[in-house]
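Suppose a colleague, Dr. K., hands you the sequence of a protein chain of 659 amino acids and asks what its three-dimensional shape might be. Before reaching for any lab equipment, you can write down a predicted structure in token form. Begin with the sequence itself:
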Amino acid sequence: MKQGWRWFGTQDAISLREIRQAGVTDVVAALYERKCGEVWPVEEIRARQEAVRAEGMEWSVVESVPVHESIKTRTGDFRTYIENYKQTLRNLAACGIRVVCYNFMPILDWTRSQLDYPLADGSSVLNFDEVAVAAFDLFVLKRPGAEAAYSPELTAKAKAWFDAATPEQVKKTSDGILLGLPGTVDDLTVEGFRELLRTYEGIDDATLRANLYAFLNEIAPLCEELGVRMAIHPDDPPRPIFGLPRILSDAADIREMCAKVPCENIGLTLCTGSLGGDPANDEVAIFREFAPRVHFVHFRNVVYTEGGSFHESGCHLCGKVDMPRLMRALLEEEARRGEQIVVRPDHGRLLDIDRFRTCYSGYSYGGRLVGLAELRGLEYGLIHGSDVDGKVCVVTGGAGVLCSVMTEDLLRHGAKVAILDLHGENAEAFAARLAAKGLTQTLPLAANVLDRPSLEAARDAVLAKWGRIDILINGAGGNHPKGTCPAEQMTADTPLADSFFGLGIEGFEFVNRLNFIGTLLPSQVFAKEMLARGGSIVNISSMAATQPLTKVAAYAAAKASIENFTRWLATHLAPMGIRVNAIAPGFFITNQNRFLMLEQDGKTLTPRGNKVIAKTPMRKFGQPSDLCGAVRFLVSEEASFVTGIVIPVDGGFLAYSGV
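The predicted structure, expressed as tokens, is then:
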């Protein structure tokens, strides 16, 4: 993850120097001096950008470019405000800032009833007390129709709270609810809030959704042109409040937005604290479902007290949100897309060390410093606490579509990886791309898996650099048109050239040698170096090994040979402490099968592609990152008693009969 931090500009009580000393690399900021709806001038953006760079960091995410209420209601000068918004996006892109966080919540950016909820250690956090919020709505705001929003039980509790509260307590609660943040919403009064609520009369859930989708579809072409990624913030809390619509509170809401606005540049800020405000939300499942459209992340945690009341946790890692699983999902998504995502610790406890400062609520220095350290430690532990940490791994075909992702995943978990490719320049170019991400424990090598001297030279280079070999992944292989029958089945009308009888022995032998001999030879060369201390070999099989696929006769036979060889070699080498297993990928789009699965537009399924999806219960092709967990398991100590098996990673393809 890229370590982010929200900075409120020159009016922030925390300096950029202090932020840099926290280990932050990416600042999250805005032009807080500009009013909502104004165009942000390039010169002001650059000035803030240079101030951040002067302290050794980068302003990489805007939080936020607020959406004017007229856009949300589509009233008044909303078209002018949309054009202003577009111009601000152009100006940000001109400065190289291309991730924009924003929200579409009516009037209030967030709602908390208490800004100094005390914890046992004397620190304080933000709190949402549903009883106090209901009391404010019913007896302070006196919103017409508010009674219908609350159950009789909650109404009675709210009345009891209000009757027992002192004027000071009521004012403190009201001030907390009406608090604004710089550059978004100014602090409100009760009277001003009532007036703003009137502007939303007649605007229900469906209307606000339609207004959001209209706005996003209008700016989407510009975002694609500029490379700007819009990251909408979920509702906070994710529940109806003060009669205002809530339209981005759970997975169904996000799913609808993605369907109504299909542009990939229009995505999500995954805020675990906001989504955590609904006990029914599964933050990990939400991240996994929408991961490709998560452009920015806020990590924090919440603890529920009673009913729908909750406060922020004293630890970013503990509470409702399963942060370890979420961090692992983040790392997997970063590996899939080949880039890191900016994550900022969202809110933090107010510690004694910040009592002398006037910090914005939730945005103290010490609390977020601890939160960032917790997140950083969790990330480091997940990456370097794995069983592959420090292991030396050889990957044949390491720069290919699937194995390149496995290679990067192993590197992120601390392994040292020799990247073997038939073309050395491909391995070197891939290693350079990895190095740009900070993954430098690589050795790019040219090697031909069908040529023993070539493999022995690669082995010697690995031993010279690292002195050992612990893991071998036999990733080189694939199909070839010369080993393929154009016809799925032969009928009386099928030309012989398109049938099995037209399959040339040269093509069949090439595919068989590339896959089977290309697995056998590297195993002989590299596994010999594992005899003294043990090790792990992972071969690559296929669906075709178990359920021979039409057309690919040579490929299916070769992969079936690999599965048999995997079991034989596992038995043979078991006394030497060398485990041999395989994975059988389902259908992944690679350069070799793309023309079989997709039409020339790269999106439309071919008839064969439709058959594959129909036979795959998960109704999708695999992502290369889907293979990483299985590979990492097989080479780990957790699989120390596992050898001679083949793990399908296929979305259920082998399990489904088609009926």
